[in-house]
Structures are given as C-alpha cells and as structure tokens.
Amino acid sequence: CLSRHRLRSFDDNCIILLESAWENHEDDGIRKMYADAMEEMSSKNYRFVLVPIEEETLKVVDNPQHGKNMFALGLLAEIYQRDVSIIEKQIAHIFKHKSAKVTETNVQLVKNGQAWARENLDFQFDIETIPSEETRVVMNGNQAAAVGAVAAGMEMCAMYPITPATSVSHELASIIEDFGGIVHQAEDEIAAAGVALGASYGGKVALTVTSGPGMALKTEFLALAIMTEIPLVVLDVQRGGPSTGLPTKVEQSDLLSSIYGQPGDAPRVVIAPRSIEECFHSMVTARRIAETFRCVVIVLTDANLATGVQQFTKPEFDVRWQQEPVDFSPVPEGLRPYEWDPETGLSRRIVPGTPGGAHTVTGLAHDEESHVSYEPESNERGCKMRSRKLAVFQSTLMPPEIHGDQEGDLLVIGWGSTQGAIEEAVDRARADGLNVSTMQLTFLSPLEPGLKEICSRFKKVMTVEINYSDTVGDPYITEETRRYGQLAWLLRAHTLVDIDCWTSCPGQPLRPNDIYNSIIAKGATL
Questions:
Q1: How far apart are CA 246 and CA 309, in angstroms?
Q2: Distance in angstroms (rounded) separating the CA atoms of residues 289 and 502
Q3: Distances in whole angstroms, Cα of residue 274 to Cα of each of 271, 403, 440, 442, 523
Q4: N or C: which end of the chain has fewer CB within 10 A?
Q5: Cβ pair 398, 408 in contact under 8 A
C-alpha cells in the first residue's frame, strides 16, 4: 500500500515493487494517491519497478483477486532465492481438502510469478538459511497462546468471538478436549467472564480471551474475582480503539485500562509477551501466578503478535508448568476462608466440596470469615492484604535485561511486540556511533524492580509505543499539559524520572526506520 505518509518509513535506495494496474484504476482517488506517491518517490533515491500482477494473474484465473497473492509469492520467492518446491508442498497441504484443480491453479500462479521475476528483474537477495539441529515449530501468537494454555494445564476457556482474538478459541477447540478441557462460547463478553470465573471458583483453571471492547464489558466480573480472590487468567489481544476502533489493526492502548480499569482499589498482574514464543510461555506463567497468588492475571498481546508468524525451538514439556491439584484436604477447624498471612497476604484457596470449608462468597467488603463487613479496620485490612501479595510477587522478579551498554546517553524502553523493531533501530543507531541502549519490559503490573536505578545511568530515557502522545510545540500543549505514551506515563509515576516518549498509532507495526529517526532526533538534543 503506497500512502504518502508511510514513505518516510522506507530506507534510502530501497526497491519498491508496484502493481501497475493502480495507474489506470477506475477510482479517481486511488489514481491520485498513486500519482502523488510516485511524485514524492521521484524526489528520493527509491527505485521502483512496475509489476503487472493483475494482468499476469488473469492469464490463469478469471478473477485476479483469487490469485494475485500467489503470483506475488512466486515473485518474492525468486527475488529471495527460495525453493519453490517447498512452497508447492505447503500449498498442497493447505488445500488438501479442496479439489486438485485448486492446488494446480495456485501452484501455477506461483510458478508464473517466479518466471516473470526471472525474466524481468535484474536483482536478487541472498538471505542465508541457518540450519538447526533442534526441532522447531512455526505458529502465530494466537496459536502459541492457545497451545501455552493447554501446556499450562488450563481446563476451561470461556469467550465470545471478537477480532483479533477469536482464533485463540479456534485453536483451543481443536486440541483442548484431548487434554480433558472445554471451550465455551458464551452469549456475550460479560457472560464469558462470568462462566470463566465460576469455573475457577469450582476448582478448575479458567481462562477468558478477548480484545479491548470485551475487556471493558468484563470489568465488573474481573473486580469480583479480585475481591473474592478467585484466580483468573485473561488474554487481551489488543487492537486499535476506542470503541469499535480498528478491529483488525494493532495498537498498544489497553495498558493503563488493564492496570487501573476497575472501580475501587483492585490490584492485578499484567504481563506483555515480547514475541510469539513468549505468547506460549506467558500463558504458563500467568496460570502459575494466578493460582499461587489467588489473583487476576491479564496477558496483553496485540494484533501484531496474534497474526504474525514466527519459528522457535519446540518447547519441551515441563511438569512444573502445571500447578499442584487443588487441595481438597479437610479444612482445619478454626481456619477462616480469608485467613491472610500477615507477611505474604496469602490465604488458602478453598473450593466448594472441601470438607469443613463451607462459606459464603461475596463481592461486598468482607472480613476473614467472608462475612460482609463495613468496619473500617476490616476494609483497610482487605485492601492491604490484596496489595501485599502482589508486592510479594514483585519481590520474585528480576530486573530487565539491557540490550547494549549498561549506561550511556540514551535508553529506549519498549513493551510487547515492538521489541524486534526497537532493537533493529537501536543497533543501527549504535553502528552510527550513538551511545544508545534499549530494554523491553514484560511485567507491567507490578513493574520489574530496579527501573529507577537503571534509568539513572542514562542521560535521557524515552519510551517507544504504539499509542498516542502529544508533541510539545502546539499552542495548546505544554510540558505540564502534555499527554505521554501509556508506558511513559506509568514509568514517570513510578520512578519520578523525566522519561520522554515517541509514539505512533498508525494501526500498523512500527517501522525500524521511524524508530531510528526518533532516536536520532532525541540524540540531537543531548
């Protein structure tokens, strides 16, 4: 897609392949966008090649929309010197339930794209294929999260379909029954949270999956889980917002609402995996935290991770991924349902059917007997204990790793799926002589320890995020009134360090070149 505001993301001297049909498109607006982009490209060092994708596709199929992607795949296979026979096998596998004609047509389109590139292009790129002796898996983030949930021993997922999270339930539905679990599609987001909470109350390990608008609807049930200290895992696959927003696009705008989006004081754990591999392991981690600390754990992925595909070493199952079975041993006489340990804030999880464990459960403020209580001391103690156990959890965390030097001029902090783009941009800036490093946070509530000390080693600190922030210089925006990126706001509040930010919310993954330019601009102010 050639939009003028994205051209700045391209490196100088890059090669751009263009569908030649845009020049004569029936839509005046599209023709103008094409002409404007071409005019801007002509002023830069871009090399562009017109490719008659639609024209060539029509030689094989009647509707070019049914084949342009395969022609382009063959084109790229030739440019990057990939083995087309592997692509042919994959096509045959994908369409194995279709007629042989479907497979033959798609294979022919790939071959035609390869042949066109061989005859018309004078460039190729050789990207080394590094063999691995390890067994590797290839999957997207939603698949990884689903498999991770099963590996963690989660027995129940309740959800309502919502883009871009729905495919998590598709993957789970295809495998979880083999391990004694179920996927329940509820009538709405609120019911899905209630079903998951009820299952967890009954002793199961429950998960609910959603995206931003669904998180808003689940709010009250999440608050109930926090008040009753029923463990619950929530997977939020972030998309652009607010409201319906950008259902199929990426954004990192649910951070603050995930941490603070509940009435009252309602502490919970928030984790943000940085890669597709971490989508798998984060589900294992989330389950263990939720059950150990009897709390809500929110796993924040996004549309970029959900649909992106990555290969990684096949995880070897570890029995430690799964918690010990629920303790159904008789409750000792006199042990109260919420007999909080004053040091850790923890109490025994008592599920229905436990001998001697009968008690009421309420979302109202309650005492250690689980009796409704409006006494000031009782509410104060409940708030303290719910917060205390997360402080204990935080004490188990390690400081984040720094990519680059341990001190310097500039530290770039990111979270979630931006890790690869940020590290590429930082490596490029370091090669240009800038003293810049980066670190990517995974635990966002509570935060990983040592952040203030780490920030003190650098002259300037900035975050890079896919959400909105103000730029100082507008007549209505000052340093005092400026909106910061969500992670920047969080870190400023916790560390009292003057942390700046560079953010963008185009609905697309951040480009390394854009991040590099922001680093250069920040470096110029040192």
A1: 21
A2: 32
A3: 10, 14, 8, 7, 25
A4: N
A5: no
Burial state string for 129-162 with b = 16 or more CB within 10 A and e = fewer than 16: eeeeeeeebebbbbbbbbbbbbbbbbbbbbbbbb
Relative to beta strand 232-238, strand 269-271 is unpaired
Specify the 3-state DSSP secondary structure of 103. helix
Angle at CA of residue 153, ends 140 and 324, nearest 5°: 145
Q: Indicate whether 1 pLDDT > 50.
A: no
pLDDT digit string, tens, across residues 195-212:
999 999 999 989 999 999
Domains of the chain: 4-120 (no CATH), 137-321 (3.40.50.970), 327-396 (no CATH), 408-523 (3.40.50.920)
φ and ψ of 236, to 5 deg: -110, 105
Is the pTM of the predicted complex or chain greater than 0.85? yes
The two beta strands, 156-159 and 206-210, are: parallel
Residue 481 CB partners (closer than 8 Å, separation 6+): 470
How far apart are alpha carbons 179 and 170 in whole angstroms?
16
Task: Please choose, from the candidates 360, 361, 366, 359, the residue with its C-alpha nearest in 3D space to the C-alpha of residue 382.
Answer: 366
**pLDDT at site 54:** 92
Alpha helices (H) in 202-322, listed in sequence order: 212-228, 255-260, 276-293, 303-307
pLDDT in tens, 223-269: 999 999 999 999 999 999 899 999 999 999 999 999 999 889 999 99
**pLDDT at 307 exceeding the cut of 70:** yes
Confidence of residue 185 (pLDDT cuts 50, 70, 90): very high
Give the whole-angstrom CA distance, residue 451 versus residue 398.
11
**What is d(CA 218, CA 189) in angstroms, rounded to the nearest whole number?**
6
Q: Three-state secondary structure along 390-452? A: HHHHHCCCCCCCCECCCCEEEEEEEEHHHHHHHHHHHHHHHHCCCCEEEEEECEEECECCCHH
Q: In what order do the strands lie in the sheet with 443-445?
A: 182-185, 156-159, 206-210, 232-238, 296-302, 269-271, 443-445
pLDDT at 2: 52
Q: Which residue has the higher pLDDT, 24 or 471?
A: 471
